[in-house]
Predict the 3D structure of the following.
Amino acid sequence: MSLAFFSPMTNTHSSAHGSWSVWARTLFVIASFAVIAAACTPEAVEPTTTTSAPTSTAPAVTTTTFGGPQYTHGGSIIVGVDHEPATLNPFIPAGDDPLVTLIGQAYFTGVQEVDGFTLELIPEVVTELPTLGNGGVVINDNGTMTVRYEIVEEAVWSDGVPISGADFQFTLDTIMDPMNRARRTVYEDIVATEFLEKTFEYTLAAPTVRYETLFGTLIPQHDVEGSDFVADWNDRPWVSGGAFVFENWEEGFDLTVVRNDNYWRTDPETRQSLPYLDEVAFRFIPETTDLIGAFKTRELDVLQPPQSSQTIETVKTIEILQALETDGAVVEVQSGPVWEHVNFQFGPGRLDRNENSCNDLLEMRLAIARTIDRSALTDDLLSGQVEPLQSYVAAFTPRLSNNSWEQYSVDTAAAARSYAQAVAKAGKECSVVFSTTNNRDTRVMMSEMFVDMFAASGIPYENVLEDGQLFFGTTVNTGEWDLGEWAWQGSPGFAGLVRIHNVWDPAAPPPEGSNYYRWGTIDSSVVDESTVRFGEILADMTNTVDPGRLEELISEAEAVLAENLVLIPLFSRPSASAYWADAIGNLKHNTSSAGLTWNIDRWYRKGLAG
């Protein structure tokens, strides 16, 4: 599996492997921003409506007889996706394609997984995730931190070889080999290791909560050692540690995985052996209309709708799928990890864009918060598929969110009063110049909607939109905007949440840091008790791995940012999956980068005779 941290977003394209067709995918990468990536991030309602017969069945069916509710083993499922991966190796360039993870969930294994119901990290090949509380993490007297994994005793590779501490060590050695071009962030801080058959222990040079995402995908030593790691593992995966094994990749058509007879996990609810299915095929259909058409005619059992570079196109695809719900389709739509926000520039560059900028005044920021109708944005831009975002924390770990921006509802009269107070305090006419990219549909429409919203509050307003390359390459870096808008990407666990707070670090303006907003920086128009306190919170956050303390600090940081209106969260882009209710059970959409296949070992085919 793989975990994605946060990064600002633009769009690029990549060519398909070999002679495959060109496909487009969204990459959350801007050259001028820091991109944080590591290896693997939200209801489960299953309608009983049935329509036509399943699209495929297994030639042989068996049923196990443990106590409690039972599912029938056997059958196959076809999952529709919009492109082929360029590689099956998650450690090399192009391996960060979400499709590599989506398919790889069938045969990769590692330390952690992301629960699709809670978006919390859960253990996979280890008995429990190490923490200070359970003794798996120890802060040493010399300032280093030791992490220890206990590997599940029954865990074996698909060829029967035990998954061992040696595999952890080999994974680390492979990542650190400069010939392999793997991402080494945090791994490079490991100063010592020790392993036995079913344990692995490593020591980091300093405490960091980012340990929680290490070893998300393991590499089997006995299968990979001595091979060319870059050349030999593009078109086939190494021996499986998951519920399925690689069967075949038919270029331009599909990739098939079949049951791993040596899979060691059982269903914790039914106590049955896993997986339930005999086979899963990932069908490649690059054209969205053809993909939807294949789902509509039930050539596909499950559909992962493509994420268009234009969010409104994604919403239209979701609406087309939702029209099939009367025929028995289940379309699960949730707020995804990519979250849009309006933000204020506090540095001197804002005056180059708008000499009447009054962002330094809380009254002006409050007037804007009371002006922007976030519900109207989600209703008109996203057809009400998601609710307004009340906290950025929800895009990372919903459980930790305090919904601190709920206090700011639309009130044009109150906005007008706050604006008048700002004008009086500033001694000049305060105005707003809004800047964002002009090549994303929702942002252009948003800017148009803002014209009427700000007029209703009596706030002078102007749109100055720019090409994405100019906006992210120059404007954001130099701080030459007044009111801005872009997106960040959330991730599960504490690591991503701690990292996102760096973008408001008073001690870290660009180019050394990532506080593009310049809130509380040395050249900021706002330096006060709140900015000082936020710096202290961030320093404490960065230096602790205690979950309880981190929760306290994240809560306080959220409150500081909300009370001072450093930003205004708008919405998370919708994320969806679709499947036929009479064909498949136990499918649960997962908005994190783990994808909808996070629990593919528990999917089962309906309608099979026991």
The chain has 14 helices and 22 strands. The chain has a mean pLDDT of 89. The CA atoms of residues 28 and 566 lie 23 Å apart.
